[in-house]
Design a protein that fits this description.
By secondary structure, this protein is of the alpha/beta class. The chain is built from eleven helices and eight strands. The chain has helices at residues 35-41, 67-81, 93-104, 128-134, 136-146, 154-166, 169-180, 184-188, 208-217, 233-236, 238-250, and strands at 4-5, 11-15, 20-24, 46-50, 86-91, 109-115, 194-200, 221-226. An eight-stranded mixed β-sheet has the order 1-2-4-3-5-6-7-8, with helices on both faces. The longest helix has 15 residues, at 67-81.
Length: 252
C-alpha cells in the first residue's frame, strides 16, 4: 500500500473502516512494526499508521524530534483527517507521544493504549549515547535482539535491525535524550480519555511496576499484563496483544 502524505509532510497509511485507531511506533522503528496488527485491526477499524517525523518514510522532515513536536504532528493529522473518538495506540516512545497528543486534543481521543511505556528512571537511556556513537549498526543489532523474550526467526530480528539502523544517528540521539527525561506518570495524569497500560511480564525495559505507577496517577486507567512476553509486545505475542487491544476498544 502506498503511503499518503499529510499537510505537514508526515507519511502514513490508512486501511479499513470504523472507529479510528492510530498506531504510533517506537524509538528508531517505523510504521512497518505494526504490519501484523494493522492487517488484523483493519477488518473492524479505520487504522491510520504514520511514520513519525525523523523515522521511516518521514525521515526527510527536519527536527526538532521532541515528544511535543511529534505529538503536534499527530494532533494535526487527527484534525486534518477529521477523526473523532479515536483510539491512540503507542509503543514505548510512541506511547509517550500518544499521551501528549491525547492531552492536547481530549475531544478527539476516546482512549489511549500505552504499550510498554518506558521511563528515564527505569532504563539507562542516559548511557546509550556513547555506545550509539561508537557503533550505531552494532547498537541497532543488539537493540533488535533485546526486544524479545520468545523465539523469533533470524529474518524477523534482521527486519527490526534494518529499521533501527535506517534511522539517522542524529535523530536517534535526539530522541533518546527525550526518553532519558521521560516521566510517564506525569503524562498519564493529564489525559482525560480512558487509558490502558499494557506491559509484559519479562520486560526489563518497561517493567510492570511502571505501568502500576502510571495507573495510580491517571484519572481513568487500568493495567493489563501479558505473561511470558518481552518488551516488544506487539510482535512478541501478536495474538495476546491484539486480543487485549480489541477488548479495550470494544469496551469504550
Amino acid at each position: 500500500m502506498s503511503a499518503r502524505v499529510s499537510a505537514r509532510g508526515v507519511r502514513y497509511t490508512r486501511r479499513g473502516a470504523g472507529r479510528p485507531v492510530i498506531l504510533l511506533h517506537g524509538w528508531c522503528l517505523n510504521r512497518k512494526m505494526w504490519a501484523y496488527a494493522e492487517q488484523g485491526l483493519s477488518a473492524s477499524y479505520d487504522v491510520v499508521t504514520p511514520d513519525l517525523p525523523g523515522f521511516g518514510l518521514s525521515c526527510d522532515l527536519a527536527g526538532p524530534y521532541s515528544f511535543d513536536r511529534l505529538a503536534a504532528d499527530v494532533v494535526a493529522l487527527l484534525d486534518e483527517l477529521g477523526l473523532e473518538d479515536a483510539v491512540l495506540v503507542g509503543f514505548a516512545l510512541g506511547a509517550a507521544v500518544a499521551l501528549k497528543a491525547a492531552a492536547a486534543r481530549p475531544g478527539r481521543v476516546a482512549g489511549v493504549v500505552s504499550v510498554a511505556i518506558p521511563s528515564g528512571k527505569a532504563s539507562p537511556y542516559d548511557k546509550f549515547a556513547k555506545a550509539m556513537r561508537r557503533d550505531w549498526p552494532g547498537f541497532a543489532r543488539k537493540s533488535a535482539e533485546a526486544l524479545f523474550h520468545n523465539h523469533h526467526s533470524a529474518a524477523e530480528i534482521g527486519w527490526l535491525e534494518r529499521m533501527f539502523s535506517a534511522t539517522e544517528l542524529a535523530v536517534a540521539l535526539e530522541a533518546v535524550d527525550e526518553l532519558a527525561r521521560l516521566q510517564p506518570e506525569s503524562l498519564a495524569k493529564d489525559v482525560e480519555a480512558v487509558q490502558l497500560f499494557l506491559h509484559a511480564s519479562h520486560d526489563t525495559v518497561a517493567p510492570v511496576a511502571l505501568g502500576k505507577a502510571c495507573v495510580a496517577e491517571a484519572p481513568n486507567a487500568r493495567l493489563a499484563v501479558i505473561g511470558d512476553c518481552g518488551h516488544l509486545i506487539v510482535l512478541d505475542d501478536k495474538a495476546a496483544f491484539q486480543a487485549e487491544l480489541e477488548n479495550f476498544i470494544n469496551t469504550l
